[in-house]
Specification:
The chain is mainly α. The longest helix has 60 residues. The protein starts with a helix and ends in a 24-residue tail after the last helix. The protein has one domain.
């Protein structure tokens, strides 16, 4: 028996297993495709939900900023004194030192 005949005989005897493997590969590919399509649809709806939430939070933030500016502009120094605030007699300001080197601990 020649080399080519032995290969063709092997292919002929293993064709059932080859067809099964091909069917399994196709089924696996279809499952993966369906899984990815469902994931894309879910993520698309999730993105829309997040965009609506961001829009709502943005409008609430704008309202809070407007209220803050209104309240900030309505307070005078005399009203602050009436509420119990006082001038700091000797204000202390904190500053961070800038260091040029790094110390390593042992």
């Amino acid at each position: 028996m020649s080399y080519v005949q032995s290969i063709s005989q092997t292919i002929y005897t293993n064709r059932k297993a080859g067809i099964r493997m091909l069917g399994f590969g196709i089924a696996l590919s279809l499952f993966i495709y369906a899984y990815l399509v469902v994931g894309i649809i879910f993520n698309g709806s999730n993105i829309e939900h997040i965009e609506r939430k961001i829009s709502k939070n943005s409008s609430e933030l704008s309202d809070l900023e407007a209220r803050y500016i209104t309240l900030k502009n309505s307070i005078s120094i005399d009203e602050a004194y009436n509420l119990g605030f006082i001038e700091a007699p000797d204000p202390v300001y904190l500053a961070r030192e800038v260091r040029d080197s790094v110390a390593l601990g042992n």
